[in-house]
Amino acid sequence: YPKQKRSVNFLLIIDLQIIIMSSINAVNNKPNDIILKLLKDIVELWHDEQYQKVTEQCVAILQRKKTIEKLNLTVPLQRLLLQGWIRQDKYEKVLEWASSATSTSSCADLFMYALYRTGDYMNVSKQSAVAATGDEDDKTALFRNLHAQAEFHLNHAEESLVLYRDLLLDIDRKSTRLNS
């Protein structure tokens, strides 16, 4: 989520491209030409780092709620929208979305990151500590990292160091298992 050239978000674009292709190939779920063009435009805009236009396109497509749900594109489009806002430093928009009825728990990592970027370290510390206790996955690692970082910003250096040490030990254990 930090501003890096085409890193984690590249995988999201690949996911979107796969979803587009599978939607095209599905007999009953073929997107209409307008939706298909908008989706292809989003991929191109993302690659060109035109995040304002990406967010505009995502909002336009998300307004076609029934069509998007039928194509199983709601979550990927929401994630693209939120990441587009994050890329533009529009963290308040992400948090507004989090509190809206259209919010989804599959975007909790993006909501937490936006909360962190607004400097609400106390809430990030509390919420990320709870979220980090879930199943071990990439999001859990992010929540653990945000928890440690929030603790650091709250001047809880010892707690932060312990959290980072534990996170690094877990990463090392996973790496050792993968290499064996």
Give a nutshell description of this structure.
The protein has about 180 residues and is mainly alpha-helical.
Protein architecture, described:
This protein is mainly α and 180 residues long. Helices cover 74% and strands 0% of the residues. The protein has 10 helices and no strands. Helix 7 (108-117) packs antiparallel against helix 8. The longest helix has 23 residues, at 157-179. It is globular and about 55 Å long.
Q: Which structural class matches the secondary elements?
A: mainly alpha
Strand residue percentage: under 5%
Instruction: State the helical fraction.
Output: over 70%
What would you report as the Rg, rounded to the nearest angstrom?
18 Å
Topology:
Layout: H1 8-25, H2 33-47, H3 51-62, H4 65-70, H5 74-87, H6 91-98, H7 108-117, H8 121-131, H9 138-153, H10 157-179
Helix pairs in contact: 1-2, 1-5, 2-3, 3-5, 5-6, 6-7, 7-8, 7-9, 8-9, 9-10
Based on the model shown, name its key terms.
180 residues, mainly alpha, 10 helices, disordered N terminus
